[in-house]
């Protein structure tokens, strides 16, 4: 499993608008193939800092292909850019430890 993770500084007061634009549609449908979980976080000390991350059950190539197949760059990135001042961190990580209450802690 891998995790796509980005930390952004959004324009003042634009965190909610950014999160609404960035978040997957809430239409009751299944997420794109391979994506198992998505989070958007807003800073408590700095509400203009937004962290987004999602977990993908597959390889980096499969994740990249999934994003191309679903028009991620065209739809989401272009629409959300208007809210972003800067990207602080953006990377894809291998999940090496997974801990959940009542389950083993191996990845």
Quickly list its features.
107 residues, alpha+beta, 3 helices, 4 strands
Question: What does this entry look like structurally?
Answer:
By secondary structure, the protein is an alpha+beta fold. The protein has helices spanning 15-22, 60-69, 72-80; strands at residues 2-10, 35-42, 49-56, 84-94. It has a four-stranded antiparallel β-sheet, with helices on one face. Strand 2 and strand 3 form a beta hairpin.
Count the beta strands. 4
Strand neighbour order, sheet with most strands = 2-3-1-4
Radius of gyration: 15 Å
* Mean pLDDT figure: 85
Distance between the termini: 8 Å
In which range does the helix fraction lie? Answer: 25-40%
The largest sheet is: 4 strands, antiparallel
Please identify the structural class as seen in this structure. Answer: alpha+beta
Sequence of secondary-structure elements: EHEEHHE
Shape: globular
* Uncertain segments: none
Fraction of residues in β-strands:
25-35%
Number of helices: 3
